[in-house]
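Field: COMPLEX_INPUT
Field: COMPONENT_COUNT = two
Field: RESIDUE_TOTAL = 224
Field: MODE = joint
Values follow.
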Amino acid sequence: MDSTHPATADLDLGSILQALADPHRRRVIAELAADRSDPERTCHSFGLPVSKQTSTYHFKTLRASGLIRDLNYGNRKGIRLRRADIDARFPGLLDLLAAEHSRTQQRAETKP
Amino acid sequence: MDSTHPATADLDLGSILQALADPHRRRVIAELAADRSDPERTCHSFGLPVSKQTSTYHFKTLRASGLIRDLNYGNRKGIRLRRADIDARFPGLLDLLAAEHSRTQQRAETKP
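Field: COMPLEX_OUTPUT
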């Protein structure tokens, strides 16, 4: 495991909760948690309403907490949820976020 | 519901995760979550290794996030976990914290 991605045994609930306390970062993880196909995504694809610099900071925070893995193919980059690692250490956490994501989506759709 | 305790429908996952990101506050909630008898406790009984002022701040943060309820009997005060409210809005969250609490306790007990 490279130094920027914590090992599964080193995942810290405090760091993870701190990462998830921010609404933009939580939206990213909730969206990933809700998609069981665990696709590879680009940071851009989430359309966070923040500057590129802030977006970079958010994704760096998510990676450092161990919630996502960076994928670097040289000519392109991506991220992926570390679902198996998170489920192994903190069972129920991703389900909780996915459920909250569905709730928020439903609320948005039923707004007049 | 008085103004210092958010109503169940107003519980906000961001505020709750922010409250739980601090290790002292998380320890309080994990300890409460692990005790299914949901006893009334005093703030003092958790023995947080912080000043009285800091302890007051932590318990105020927990109350404002909706995780605990303050009980004031005039001659004595207490707190209690809002288990039913939290379970209703964020099922699995308290179980997650209780599990992490057991894990931490076991690790502390098996240390040489």
